[in-house]
Design a protein that fits this description.
Aspartate Aminotransferase, domain 1, about 40% helix, alpha/beta, 15 helices, 2 domains
């Protein structure tokens, strides 16, 4: 059945993904099963999406209750779940206003539009350019693609949109040199996930905030991958003790349902008046109800504290592996957004882990990335690191034998 299903999918679905030959049919917590009944421990979580794990019972209850009440009305009307979710997000962040949409790319589109509109409304329409970071990733729409600092993702889509400049990540001096009279904002991820799990120096975000204040620029944080507890705090900007003017969320916000959000300070958000931006499915009652339960569960169940504790343990286990295997050059990341830089290609290790029942992924060719549900346990971490230890040892032994016979 698996091969027939995959063959049929390959006939009818656009070929925009390089898929693994696995059909996932069921999930619970940090575990997934395929259609053959094989079990996998999930260290991908839909790429930092299912922060509370798969098929979370409280979220399922909230969805079911809302599904029997109200799914969708237009944003021409008010709805209770959307209002309550916006109130929760503003109460727990720097922001005063929230715009809801369907994805991270849409949230970043909204942020780009708001930054331009803000200066236009202020009589400074010449300020429209946005400085983004090299190796950044902000989405696949034309504007967010134009704001992304990775050439391989942009290939084939020229001409891109005008108005984006790029500076090296974690280099305040280079950023300062990019600022000009047409600059409106700086847009960056507090940790570059798709860029290779790259963390800046502790004072970098403070320096960026200071540069923005000095030049009168808006600061936009893309927290689509880092937000909603992934780093051990609700939002990654909290680690640095700075606040943006605009922030974008998606991925884990509704634990797997399509939702994005752009949050902003009142003074900035005021540039979006009626008719200036919209989203048909932004903040529908059913998705907002799920996201609201995500937020309440994180508070009620001590998810952030667990993330801080378990991430320290996970990192220690990865460092233990580094001490045993020369192929591991660096362990990096924060919270449960962790990476392992290898001296060789990472994809073979991803495939070997999958064969042994563990799902991980690879970015930038040689960075193994670990973004499990925040409810991951020590036992599950021990099992993965034991698996990796065996794979690295077997790879080294095989290479040694090849060298002997060469």
């Amino acid at each position: 059945m698996t091969n027939a299903m995959m063959d049929r999918a390959n006939e009818v679905i656009a070929k925009t993904y390089k898929r693994f030959p696995v059909v996932i049919t069921r999930g619970s917590g940090c575990t997934l099963w395929d259609d053959a009944g094989k079990r996998y421990t999930d260290f991908v979580a839909g790429i930092a999406v299912c922060n509370l794990g798969h098929a979370h019972p409280k979220i399922a209850e909230a969805l079911s209750a809302q599904a029997h009440t109200l799914w969708h009305v237009s944003n021409l009307f008010y709805s209770v779940p959307q209002m309550e979710l916006a109130a929760w997000l503003t109460a727990h962040s720097f922001a005063d206003r929230v715009f809801f949409c369907n994805s991270g790319a849409e949230a970043n589109e909204a942020a780009i539009k708001l930054a331009r509109k803000y200066f236009k409304e202020a009589g400074q329409g010449q300020r429209f350019r946005i400085i983004s970071m090299e190796q950044s990733f902000h989405g696949r729409t034309m504007a967010t693609l134009s704001a992304t600092g990775q050439d391989k993702i942009k290939h084939g889509f020229d001409p891109l949109l005008e108005g984006f400049d790029f500076a090296p990540f974690d280099d305040p001096a280079a950023l300062r040199a990019k600022i000009g009279p047409a600059t409106a904002a700086v847009m960056l991820e507090p940790v570059q996930g798709e860029g290779g799990v790259r963390c800046p120096r502790p004072d970098y975000l403070k320096q960026v905030r200071a540069l923005c204040d000095e030049a009168g620029l808006l600061l936009i944080f893309d927290e689509i991958q880092t937000g909603m507890g992934r780093t051990g705090k609700l939002f990654a900007y909290e680690h640095a003790g700075v606040k943006p003017d605009i922030m974008t969320l998606a991925k884990a916000l509704a634990n797997g349902l399509p939702m994005g959000a752009m949050l902003a300070r009142e003074q900035v958000a005021a540039a979006f008046g009626p008719g200036s931006h919209a989203s048909t499915f932004g903040g529908t009652p059913i998705v907002s109800a799920a996201a609201l339960e995500v937020c309440r569960t994180m508070e009620r169940d001590g998810i952030l504290e667990h993330t801080r504790q378990i991430s320290e343990y996970f990192r220690s286990k990865l460092e233990w592996l580094k001490g045993r295997h020369a192929v591991i050059e660096e362990v990096r990341g924060v919270g449960l957004l962790l990476g392992m830089r290898l001296a060789t290609e990472g994809e073979p290790f991803v495939l070997q882990c999958m064969e042994q029942g563990f799902l991980i992924n690879c970015v930038q060719g040689n960075i193994l990335r670990f973004v499990p549900p925040l409810v991951i346990s020590r036992a599950e971490i021990d099992a993965l690191t034991g698996c990796l230890d065996g794979i690295f040892s077997a790879t080294l032994e095989a290479e040694s034998k090849r060298d002997q016979h060469a």
